[in-house]
Amino acid sequence: MADAAPRLKGLVEQVLGTPLPVRIRAWDGSQAGPPGAPVLVVRDRRALRRLLWKPGELGLARAWVAGELEIEGDLYAALDLLSGLIWERGEDARSLGQALRDPEVRAAVRGLLRLAGPVPPPAPPREEVRRVRGHLHTRRTDRRAISHHYDVGNDFYELVLGPSMVYSCAYWRAPEAEGGTLEEAQRDKLELVCRKLGLKPGQRLLDVGCGWGSMAIHAAREHGVSVVGVTLSQEQAAYARKRVADEGLTDRVEIRVQDYRDVADGPYDAISSIGMAEHVGADRYLEYAQDLYALLKPGGRLLNHQIARRPERDESAYRVDEFIDAYVFPDGELAPIGTTVTQLERAGFEVRDVESIREHYALTLRRWVANLETHWERAVRLTSPGRARVWRLYMAASALSFERNRIGVNQVLAVKTPEPGGSGMPLRSRTWNG
Hints:
By secondary structure, the chain is α/β, with parallel strands linked by helices. Helix content is 44%, strand content 15%. A hairpin with a 5-residue loop joins strand 1 (23-25) and strand 2 (31-32). The longest helix is centred in the C-terminal third of the chain and has 19 residues, at 385-403. This is Cyclopropane-fatty-acyl-phospholipid synthase. It comes from Streptomyces cyaneogriseus subsp. noncyanogenus.
């Protein structure tokens, strides 16, 4: 009999203690769940083995990347419905242990084991990071983590990011429904950064984590500055250098494969760090801030554009997102905006402006997801089915996280205030928006 779906639904609801908000279609063709709801397709019972051996987010991620789980219908709606069961329940070992004290829950788990079959789960998909021993955020481990994420292939990133080749939150003056495009929004973000930094012809700009060179090119072409861009990705650097040459800017833009900790040719008039500080790590953040402070001239400005998480009531309970750490940003860490501001101030900076652009990132991510889905077959050929699935899940889930205020993104403008205290900042705040 084809009855796997109703059995699975009943057992899972017994373990979770709540009805499943999505419909299930199992490997035997059976279905169960609310009519009209998004469908969670369990293509192979190996997905159950992964979840039973690794309950929670990582087990689900492995099954998704392996193609054993799929969603039919609105991906965003399905993830939103499932988020309360996955990301908001705190499925750690302690909560699981408490649940298993209930005899009915233990019986349901035994039923899931029988349904899944006795064979242990297969090895994690090859897209998962293979951990090596050693300290986090050394030059070597940071280089390996950056390579995992950014050396996927420039052609793949072109599909997702579009012509702007900017991999950070855009600045939307108008959503696409009102005539705005992703390329215009990314151009407006780069211009906003330049205006906040107060760039003038002849100045020197350091772009930390320069990516494919978009910020460096924009600043040199539109504001007449000389730019040094640093990245740890060989593929990014090669792509950025070609773009610089094609723009005729080789006399004003230098792209280096270099760790920001090894930059020694300051002082600079300004520093931009856009979507890079998430890779620094909590233990290294003060060092990061101090290094950038030392590279600036007195009166020089730093624009730090960084994703932030919500603070925990007990910060010791914070845990890194397992899916993102294993498949997307190895060793990445998010901090609350208050922590970031405090660390910048401890390094000597005067923080002059903080702007939250959380909603802008949700719009940006939805556009990237649409680009990926439009070019899905080519994206799979350029990478792998698993890697394309990683990106679709990561970006869609992130869009929802920004929309639901689970995470945010902020531009922090900080100044190396010279003695005896004049900052060189205009008296009227936010003149860059005029």
